[in-house]
Amino acid sequence: MTQNQQYWQSPVQKWAASGLSQAEEFCRQNNIKPRRFYAWKNRLQPATPALSSCSQPFVEVSPAVTTDQPGPVVMSLAGVEIHYDQNTSPELLIRLLKLLREEL
Length: 104
Description:
Layout: H1 3-18, H2 23-29, H3 34-44, E1 73-77, E2 80-84, H4 90-103
Antiparallel strand pairs: 1-2
């Protein structure tokens, strides 16, 4: 780990632990330039899920209609719809959700 990485690791970890949803407020409180902070945050935490900043990343769902016959399921998130049925591989759904999380 380089000296810069070691230096920036502490503020990034402190922000993550601060509970502040907006890094700009953390930067203002700690006299850090937001643009620089975001650059180092992205370098140090490239796999940080975008959904983690959502106030409610999970929502309760219930079927609109209940029948004895299984039908397609539609999952909608941020304008993206995924249509699947009982034969869809759970591994495929997990991969799709991870890809969406990276893109949103």
